[in-house]
Design brief:
The protein has 12 helices and 14 strands. By secondary structure, it is of the alpha/beta class. The strands form 2 sheets. A 7-stranded antiparallel sheet has the order 4-3-2-1-5-6-7, covered by helices on one side. Strands 10-9-8-11-12-14-13 form a 7-stranded mixed sheet, with helices on both faces. Strand 11, helix 7 and strand 12 form a beta-alpha-beta unit. The longest helix has 22 residues. The N and C termini lie far apart (78 Å).
């Protein structure tokens, strides 16, 4: 049966693996569980081992051959059970006290019941979903960023990123009527990072929809910016540039049509939103991250029974932060929605603030909203950065 175990692992430890869970340790002093999943590291598929030992969690990445050897060793010495979840297979491995291995496996129904024109297996749960960037059609930046193969197949370990990119483009699609066809549309992406979404935005607007766009990606990390510059030059994206810089100090534009800020940490989001208001940006798309500021300030005796629990207070503070940000943007003449960006199972940072500037600003209504925000922040004893920044702007 050792040979059968090796065969099973060789068939499943690849890019189509969902996860492997190794459990039921032989000794109490051992780690009680190990999970393994594929990850993309510098364009290569590796397999991340997550080891759970008491309250500690350890991570280590290995290539497929080393990981297969590692799993065999774990089942031979330390654990008695292994669950394999793969696109094509579900399998259970049981090891007796005497070392006898029993394997049961079956093909899953999630094989797509067919292939696409390139002969690649299609995933069943994706057949009914039509994405803006379609599977089977290679997009250069998605290939270089490790999301697609050269044939256009989505790398399984990066499928969540593929869905996220397409979901973001759906938000862009919704606001297309607000973007001008008569002139260059100027867009700023604050805290662009590795720029999956920045490249996607340029590709969609310029290559697919034929807008004349000028997109600037801004980030503090020099190596990330250099990498993005090289890719932009490689694709001939003349309207896409990347700069190293801080959100609060950026002075590169006098006016901007759209401001994007995705996962700018804590108050960096507030500075980006304030700049967007200052520029009278027609559209703002923001996915906030790490809302620590209000969590450290919030204090309300009437809510003590709720906020005595740290994790509840943290989540409540994050929601309060983003709700107030949305209300403050309304006081500046925007119609604001808070939308789900991606499923909670994929990332906890799943709220997107979408603000579209109204052509008819209703001053009296905005003042009423402003007073309500002031009442709320006073009740909670908080002073969010965006409230201060916009207050200073009105005093000038």
């Amino acid at each position: 049966m050792q040979g059968e175990l090796r065969k099973l692992l060789e068939e499943t430890v690849n890019e189509d693996l969902y996860r492997i869970t190794i459990s039921n340790p032989r000794r109490k002093d051992e780690a009680f569980k190990i999970k393994i999943r594929p990850v993309m590291v510098k364009g290569a598929i590796l397999f991340q081992e997550t080891l759970y030992e008491g309250t500690k969690v350890f991570h280590e990445n290995k290539d497929s051959e080393i990981m297969i050897d590692r799993i065999e060793q774990l089942l031979a010495r330390d654990f008695k059970q292994c669950e394999v979840e793969h696109r094509s297979w579900r399998a259970t491995v049981l090891v007796s006290k005497k070392g006898k291995i029993t394997i049961s496996r079956k093909r899953t129904q999630d094989t797509g019941a067919g292939t696409d024109r390139s002969g690649q297996i299609r995933m069943a749960h994706n057949r009914t979903k039509k994405y803006i960037l379609e599977e089977g059609i290679p997009v250069p930046f998605l290939v270089d960023l490790g999301v697609q193969t050269k044939e256009g197949r989505v790398v399984h370990a990066r499928y969540d990123k593929f869905r996220q990119i397409n979901r973001f483009l759906e938000f862009i699609e919704d606001i297309l009527p607000t973007l001008s066809r008569e002139r260059t549309v100027k867009i700023i992406d604050f805290g662009c990072g590795k720029s999956y979404l920045t490249f996607a935005m340029y590709y969609y607007l310029h290559e697919l929809k034929r807008y004349d766009v000028e997109i600037t990606g801004l980030d503090l990390k020099e190596d990330v910016i250099d990498h993005c510059r090289r890719l932009s030059e490689k694709y001939g994206y003349g309207g896409l540039r990347f700069l190293k810089g801080d959100i609060a100090e950026y002075e590169g534009h006098d006016s901007v049509d759209m401001v994007v800020t995705l996962h700018a940490c804590d108050t960096a989001t507030d500075y980006a939103l304030a700049r967007a208001v200052e520029w009278h940006a027609g559209v703002i798309l923001s996915v906030p991250c790490c809302q620590h500021e209000v969590n450290s300030q919030i204090r309300c005796d009437k809510l003590d029974t709720i906020m005595k629990y740290g994790i509840i207070k943290e989540r409540m503070a994050a929601l309060v932060t983003d709700a107030i940000r949305a209300q403050l943007l309304e006081t500046e003449g925007y119609t604001v929605d808070i939308l789900e960006f991606i499923d909670m199972e994929h990332t906890p940072k799943n709220l997107l603030i979408r603000a579209v500037r109204k052509t008819d600003r209703q001053g009296q209504c905005q003042e009423q909203v402003r007073r309500k925000v002031q009442d709320t922040t006073a009740f909670l004893h908080i002073e969010p950065t965006l409230q201060k920044l916009l207050g200073e702007r009105h005093m000038q």
